Amino acid sequence: MKNIFFTILFSLTIVFLGSCQEPQVDYNTITTGRPIFYGDPDTTQAHQAVAFLYANNGGACTGTLIARSWVLTAAHCVEGASYMDVYFGNNTQTFYSEIRSSRLIPHPNYSGSSSAIYNDIALVELSSNAPSSIATIPILPPNLAIGDADENSLMLEFVGFGQTETGSSGVKLTVDHVMGEQCSSSNYCNISSSPYQIPPNSISYGQNGGGPCSGDSGGPAFITRSGTEYVAGVTSYGDQYCTSYGVSTKVDGYYTWITGYTGGTTTTEICTNGIDDDGDGQIDCNDSDCASNPACQTTDTACDHVITVSCNDSVNSTTASGAYTAFSSYNCLNGWTEDGPERIYELDLNTGADVTITLSSGSTNDLDLLILSGSCGTQTCEGGSAEQAGTDEVIQFNYDGSNTFFAVVETYENPGAFTLSVECTGGTVQENCTNGVDDDADGAVDCADSECASHSACQTSSENCTNGVDDDGDGLVDCNDPNCASSPACQAASENCTNGVDDDGDGLIDCADADCATLSSCTERVEDCDNGIDDDGDGAIDCFDVDCSGQPNCGTLTSEICNNGTDDDADGFADCADPDCRTFSGCNSNPEICNNNIDDDGDGFVDCNDSDCSSFAGCGSGGEICYNGVDDDGDGKTDCGDPDCQSYSKCYGTNPDDSDSGCSCSNAGHNKPFSAHFLLILMFAGIIAVRKFA
Predict the structure, then answer these.
(1) Helix (H) or strand (E) holding 78
(2) Does residue 598 sit in helix, strand or coil?
(3) pTM of the shown model
(4) How far is CA 523 from CA 135, 514, 520, in A?
(5) What angle do CA 220, 153, 17 make, to 5 degrees?
(6) What digits encode the pLDDT tens for the residues 263-290?
(7) Distance (Å) of CA 605 to CA 36, 217, 379
(8) Are residues 645 and 562 in the same domain?
(9) Does 624 map to a domain?
(10) Is 206 helix (H, G, I), strand (E, B) or coil?
């Protein structure tokens, strides 16, 4: 790696100024090349946006991807260069993407003279977009600008590829340091952490315990506001030995200049509020601006998303998007690293087969092939193939069936599309899941064979809950599939108890529905005996309802009066004990409330175990529905004739084992001596008597 190391000598003595003017002198030699001293390797996915910059004039710096084709760096990094090569990855030996610049744009008012260094900020426009797997990191907007309140308390995180305390370089390192003071004025500012003034729009910090040094120039100083990480500073200059102080350009002071090129907006995405704050069509964690936000971090690895590939099969995919970057160091690489995105495939192989695995990719995509054995992880690597970009990676072995094997498609440099092929010769035949043949002769072809359950070609889509199709192949369609339980289309409507409509589709309307059992308008109803309506919802209309006994329009037939303490019809049962009174409002007046854990109607059954609750939304479906004229449970018995309905209030007084044999109604309606209503009462009483005493 080549370092940029500008040394500026000052021969004048120190003069401390009482006002904010241009700096006069400094007794130290200072440098505009800054590296990370005493830092730790930074391989995080969030910081893949931190890039290594190498200029055609030999200078090396660090920069940050702030938009798909824009990198932010220091002006002194681009000074004297006509182009830069921008590398993405975690060290100079394992970069996975290289893009040349199309433009180098230093700030128009940049000064890098020995008497004044200010406006040390620049943009590098890339000739093509950075890989989509790399999330951009937003610059700090003016509304979140660093100010006086942040002095001596704000934590800065520096990242860069520069020189370390041991003199080495080329590895991305990170170190944290508390910010000292800042200058937001249009003039130079006196500060206590440096022996001289700092320029407008800059921040300063001490370097005891570590900080940036040569080669980290242009690198970011990150801060976090409300859970979102921003580029707040660009490493500019400091003391020659990288141990006393440092100065970074304060990015929020250049927001308008930067976004004038990048097309950014003045609103930054807030990653936890459910709003598309920056208007890019992406909300919260779906917005790449939130990639480094803790709320959006995922611990998933490629091992959590393994797809099976069988013998004599192939798969086409890419590491440029949708891949994972959790793995880089494998036990079989002898210290070498593969820092790019990876995908992992479980190999479904024939025992005893000679296996050839081939990985093909584009001429510029340097993808490598590794084999894991036993389990999926970085410490189970058996070996691999690592040819140059554009050359097929090929691994051959005999599979003895003792372990599960995994193929890892790793990105060394420049992620991209690939084809992974598995060829097997000999061995015990396994099912090929895509050829329409019953390869293993077990009677099941391709995806119908259980061996293919995890094969990529047999991964069914999730159930579409509104299209009338069994999308996921589990035999259940739309709302009948438990996968649709939370779908709005499958949420049963609540019964409106006063609109005359069966809102929840259970066959019962308004007060007849158990969902309405506790509604006052349903518990205080009175039967009108001459309107042809079941006003009190007990299943009996007008004169068929014993509430109407004695009403003029219902005749004077001697029947049970349900509230006089007398066995009026001489059947041995008085009042509510008489089945004739099952519809009387004073009998069984307490409806079953289906969600209070109480046997409200005193029939010995509580809540959903009571047949009265068959229409209650909270009790689900299943078993006999006691009011629909259908044998729902297929036992040959319907409604009140089914023993399952013994607790249904409208079935009280009936014996499900009795039949209507011996009761002939063939002459009903002949020689009618009474009113129609009166005759119906006789019929009703007669049927009950026959059933009771047969």
Answers:
(1) helix 75-78
(2) coil
(3) 0.42
(4) 62, 11, 5
(5) 85
(6) 865 456 777 777 777 777 778 777 766 7
(7) 75, 79, 60
(8) no
(9) yes
(10) strand
